[in-house]
Sequence to fold (426 residues):
Amino acid sequence: MNICFKNIRLINPTQNIDKVTSLWIKDGIIQAINEQFEVDTNTEIIDATGLVASPGFFDMHVHFRDPGFEYKEDIDSGVNSAANGGFTGVVVMPNTNPVIDNKTVISYINTKAKDKLVDVFVSGTLTQNQDGTHLSNMMEMASYGAVLFTDDGKSVMNSDTMRRIFEYSAPSDLLISQHCEEHNLTKGFDMNESDLSIKLGLKGYPSVAEEIILMRDIYLSEFTGNRRYHAQHISTCKSVDIIKDAKKKGQRVSCEVTPHHISLTDDLLATYCTNYKMNPPLRKQADIDAIIEGLKDGTIDVIATDHAPHSKLEKETEFDKAMNGIVGLETAFGIAYTYLVVPNHLTLNQLIEKMSINARKLLKLSKVVFEEGAKANITIFDPNEEWIVDSTKFLSKSVNTPYNNHKLTGKIKYTINNEKIHFSTL
Fold:
């Protein structure tokens, strides 16, 4: 790889960089950042006027389904999908088969993900086989590279178990993460509990089911010595308030939201389209408004996709039997830019913080820097290009998206990392 982007807007909030310049990358290393320099005769020169280069996007919540469910996604297709959406780093969730609760499964994933464009990090379970009772060997998994711990897809329901998890995490200051759901209130749910769910005859998931577990965990985190805690894919206005209050008190609490929870409401379930079925479910416009405010004021740290690929057979079935979840890696930036930056809720720099910088900071990973001699870990996009989502252009094995044929603004062009470059097919 020997490529020079002329007249590109370079943004890196970590370094307070926001300028139009030229960027030369050779053999995966930034050779020069300047308005005038001489390149090799074999350098490919691209007029990048109007394009933006940012630190490579990072998604701390994806499902690559490997091992066990490779018919939905595997490491290779997941990496291709991530690169196509502008991501240079991801964290895979542990609800595979077998689950990621030991060093053997972590080693398997690390081997399959080696030497890819996208850096694949692993999360480990909180409890053995996600049973909610017996603690997994988190210390050992951390030594093999696990960067956070969660029983994602299942909430740890037992409060004593959750207390012991926080206490166990203390010596190594592990990041404990939770899928907040009081399962006794949500068993067999189809959508958000509301007047609409009653009208449609669909089993509801009340917002309080998320908030009860979130509040309990924050109390336990404080009680056990202000342990690090990360709430996954929050979806309600009250959840935003709970986290805001905890942060005001100085608790080490963070959270993420998905692109679909800033752009879609539960009204769409009236179509009975299973691509609107997910966990947590789509909520009300008031919840979206609160989430956007939480993104603006810093309560919400990260935008993560919860990329959840399923086969057509698993989605194209009766609504109550359809699997929860949608693919999200290849539409994430377009959705976030369209619904957050275009209407001036966030600046572009703030969006980059939510999609690139903050997740790496929470996971204690190395910062991405733009300077001569540094490794090139870069996402390049056109913030002004409008495009129509076409799921046939996705590189994921699955196409369960509610955004097909949606018009978005902001399109990925190139993804660069580990001496590799990907030209987006979107």
